[in-house]
Design brief:
By secondary structure, this protein is an alpha/beta fold. The protein has a 7-stranded parallel beta sheet, sandwiched between helices. A 6-stranded parallel beta sheet has the order 21-20-19-22-23-24, with helices on both faces. The chain starts with a helix and ends with a helix.
């Protein structure tokens, strides 16, 4: 048996899709099965964490409060400390521990422990998990049938364990009846950490037996070797409020908390990454707080010294602020921060609270407090956004609204040829028009499909490719993205263009997909300054865009053309005009020269280094 990418894909989709069907467990008995390796005592600086002893203590406490028989079976990979003594002192009446030699494998340990067990229901636990009596009762109810139960735990985000976040990735947590285990087969045995429950979930899913739910009474203890969280020593010291550790690090910069919704798909989310990395590289101590989920497409791009924490509501944001006591708070399109400010959910007053806005429409203006205080300011990404904000809120002093012109990595997005076979079409075709971004109403991607239909009347080889769309790692927004994705697919089908439009989804290398395009098209109803526009220009792709946001300034020195639209949605005539402009751009003999001018404009005004310099200057000014 092998652990495959499909197991991970199934994991991303499984939560809340298959809810448990609780039944009557009758007189069933429970076997709690564990394997322990380097979890009895864990050292982190001067802190000693006794993970396995705390796990056993929680089990012993829970067992006292249930009315069914429970046994605990532990396989010990020669762990540090005396496992037998820990179990003996716990007060558990029915337990067994035995040692295993050889190279560690969690699957081997759990399977051997299961083979030694004798009760009706098997609960596979990791040795750094805390359980409760209600959770054990839930296990018995959810396994009363033939289902395999996959509970989602909460994990601590720092050694103080004051804050927790949901852990959608597996920690080997699952439960089933003994006959179900015999039917599906043993747990995957491999000499690596993690993935066993994901693989087992795939196998249970094939038989229609997989169920899952979130459990607040199932907790994963913090420890410094947690792979998925990869807790940064800096964040640990902040959450623990360990001033001595900070002095040892010799930290000189400001403490900055950046609050946003996710690290998922979108320009705002990518900007969060850029800001965090820029400030961290300048010596500031940075934590990113997300109000929806810590997961997402851009998580992997964060620098190692940047901390990530989740605060899902205004109360949690308030607790986070009071714990970290940041010098500067930056709210990136963050409605939850505005709510926390209005409700006075935090006592700590930073030297500056920055409201980062990407536009100046009604939705953006709602993020600004009714009365901007002298220790609060607004940060925008373009001069057009600043002017729009001041028009929409004439009560705000112009000195309170700053500009940190956005930027992109022009060393990553460079002209070049795409790898062969990236596009699905064979034979001779073209020109290829392209777009990118999440599925959302304001992107007006349905209009772009209609424009392709108009173009194909005279250029039947024309194709359209789009990447982005929906990020499965951000479940809170996935329903919205999928709704507009389905709407787009309906337009494609209605226009009869299914064979001529390719929706690539999330891609590993956006620059390679940009290089497949002859013309990049932006049909948005409204925007400020989309990062993908700058990325396309840096790649040398000429642009045709609706006249929105900061595009008139971006294209003033070349790089593309704009199409005027009188109202939010494009009229039939405006669709025709856009199609004509796109065809004209694709046929221009100097098209590459147009793309070169676009790249030069990005290098001159929108580089990542320039953004970093402006952000460092801004934080230095407001944190004095």
């Amino acid at each position: 048996m092998k652990f495959t990418k499909a197991d991970i894909d199934n994991r991303a989709e499984r939560r809340n899709h298959f809810t448990p069907r609780p039944g009557d467990p009758g007189k069933a008995s429970l076997s709690i099965v564990l394997t322990t390796f380097r979890r009895t005592v864990v050292k982190h600086g001067e802190r000693t964490m006794r993970l396995f002893p705390r796990c056993i203590a929680s089990i012993a406490n829970a067992v006292k409060r249930v009315d069914f028989p429970v046994e605990v079976i532990v396989t010990d990979w020669e762990d540090f400390g005396d496992v037998d003594s820990i179990l003996d002192r716990s007060g558990l009446k029915d337990w067994e521990a035995f040692k295993i030699r050889g190279k560690f494998s969690r699957g081997v340990g759990l399977n051997q422990a299961a083979a030694r067990s004798s009760n009706d229901v098997l609960l596979f636990l990791d040795s750094d998990i805390l359980v409760t009596a209600p959770f054990l009762r839930r296990v018995m109810a959810c396994t009363a049938g033939r289902d395999v139960y996959f509970p989602v735990c909460q994990r601590a985000i720092g050694p103080s364990e004051r804050f927790w976040e949901w852990c959608d990735k597996g920690y080997g947590l699952m439960a089933m009846r003994r006959e179900t285990y015999a039917s599906i087969g043993p747990i995957l045995e491999r000499h690596k950490w993690g993935g066993e429950d994901d693989h087992y979930y795939s196998r249970a899913l094939e038989q229609g037996r997989a169920v899952s739910e979130y459990r607040k009474d199932l907790l994963h203890m913090w420890h410094p070797t947690s792979r998925e969280w990869r807790i940064r020593p800096y964040l640990a010291s902040l959450v623990a409020q360990d001033a001595e550790r900070e002095r040892e690090r010799g930290a000189q910069g400001a403490s900055v908390l950046i609050l946003g919704e996710t690290l998922g798909l979108g320009g705002a989310e990518k900007l969060t990454i850029h800001i965090a990395n820029a400030l961290a590289s300048g010596g500031h101590r940075v934590v990113v707080g997300t109000t929806v989920t810590t997961h997402g497409a851009f998580r992997c791009e964060l620098r190692e010294e940047v901390g990530v924490v989740q605060a899902k509501n205004p109360q949690a944001i308030g607790r986070l602020i009071d714990s970290l006591e940041p010098t500067v708070i930056i709210g990136n399109n963050c409605h939850a921060l505005r709510a926390a400010m209005e409700r006075r959910n935090f006592q700590h007053r930073p030297r500056n609270l920055t409201i980062l806005l990407h536009g100046f429409g009604e939705w953006s203006l709602r993020l600004i407090p009714k009365a901007l205080q002298d220790w609060q300011s607004i940060l925008t990404m373009s001069e057009q956004a600043r002017e729009g904000i001041l028009r929409g809120r004439p009560d705000i002093s112009p000195e309170s609204v700053y500009i940190a012109q956005t930027g992109i990595d022009a060393d990553l997005f460079t002209p070049g040829k795409p790898p062969p076979g990236l596009l699905p079409w064979k034979g001779k075709f073209g020109p290829v028009f392209g777009s990118a971004g999440r599925y959302s109403k304001e992107k007006a991607l349905g209009s772009l499909v209609k424009i392709l239909g108009i173009i194909r009347r005279t250029h039947p080889g024309a194709k359209l490719v789009h990447f982005g769309g929906s990020d499965a790692g951000v479940k809170a927004h996935k329903r919205h993205w999928d709704f507009w994705g389905d709407d787009l697919k309906e337009v494609i089908e209605a226009e009869g263009l299914g064979e001529h439009v390719h929706l690539a989804g999330l891609v590993d290398s956006p620059v390679e997909w940009l290089r497949t395009m002859d013309v990049f098209c932006l049909t948005s109803d409204f925007e400020d300054l989309p990062l993908v526009i700058l990325e396309a220009m840096a790649t040398g792709i000429p642009l045709v865009s609706t006249e929105v946001g900061a595009l008139p300034v971006v294209l003033k020195d070349g790089g593309g053309v704009m199409v005027h639209k009188a109202r939010e949605s494009m009229s039939e005539q405006e669709l025709e005009d856009f199609a004509a402009a796109a065809i004209k751009m694709a046929k221009r003999k100097d098209r590459k020269a147009v793309g070169k001018k676009g790249r030069e404009a990005v290098l001159a005004r929108y580089s990542l280094e320039a953004l970093k310099a402006r952000l460092l200057e801004y934080v230095e000014e407001v944190s004095r």
